[in-house]
Automatic annotation (TrEMBL):
Transferase recorded as keyword: no
Name of the protein this chain belongs to: Alpha-D-glucose-1-phosphate phosphatase YihX
Source organism per UniProt: Posidoniimonas polymericola
Alphabetical list of PANTHER family matching this protein: ALPHA-D-GLUCOSE 1-PHOSPHATE PHOSPHATASE (PTHR43611), FLAVIN MONONUCLEOTIDE HYDROLASE 1, CHLOROPLATIC (PTHR43611:SF3)
Record EC number: 3.1.3.-
Highest taxon above the source species: Bacteria
Cross-referenced Gene3D superfamilies: HAD superfamily/HAD-like, Putative phosphatase, domain 2
Length: 207
């Protein structure tokens, strides 16, 4: 069945990113060791970590900055810290060209991404295709829910005005694809832009 709405993950689908670069740059700006940043932001590698809480929208950027200063016993310039946190992305040109072509062909597109309120404005200002090609942006900090939780997929369908089964979704993380499939979305893992284009053509999506 041809999908009515196409959702795309952001990281490693439309843009590449590097958390190690983020940690290094934040440490440099704050004048502290990298392991101090890791211990503060990613102590357990689970959703209990402060970085996950920030992506879930449970902390505002003001609260995140205040937390960082207290947790690391540092007082970095806030603008410099936010730039260090955010300047970690690079475009996947082939994917951005694909979504631009899909939008030009009249397809409805959206971003469905786990991201935070500092990264998001940096991304949309750095990569204009994220505004130009996409009708909807469903973010974890805005939805207050992270993939693969059902709530964010339900919100994605509601905002698109579609049933879950009328959506197509691609993500590089298999657990997020599995979460989407479990609620009835036609979802596939992202392996390459060429592979994604083939998946769309098989579903009758032309551009």
């Amino acid at each position: 069945m041809k999908p009515k709405f196409l959702y795309f993950d952001l990281g490693n689908v439309l843009v590449r990113f590097c958390n190690d670069t983020m940690v290094r740059q934040m440490a440099e700006v704050a004048g502290i060791r990298e392991d101090a940043v890791r211990a503060a932001a990613f102590p357990t590698g689970t959703p209990d970590d402060i970085q996950w809480q920030f992506e879930c929208g449970r902390l505002t950027p003001d609260e995140y900055y205040a937390w960082f200063c207290e947790a690391t016993n540092s007082s970095p310039d806030r603008a410099a810290l936010e730039l260090a946190c955010s300047d970690i992305f690079a475009p996947i040109d082939a994917s951005l060209e694909l979504v631009t072509a899909l939008a030009a062909a009249g397809h409805r597109l959206g971003i469905l991404s786990n991201t935070n309120a500092v990264h998001w404005p940096f991304l949309t200002s750095s990569f204009p295709q994220l505004n130009e090609a996409f009708e909807l942006h469903v973010t974890s900090f805005g939805a207050r829910s992270m993939k693969p939780d059902r709530e964010i997929y339900d919100q994605a369908a509601e905002r698109a005005g579609c049933e879950l089964g009328e959506l197509f979704f691609t993500d590089d993380r298999h657990e997020n694809v599995a979460g989407a499939v479990a609620v009835g979305i036609d979802a596939v893992p992202f392996e390459s832009t060429e592979q994604l284009a083939g998946e769309l053509r098989r579903r009758g999506v032309a551009w």
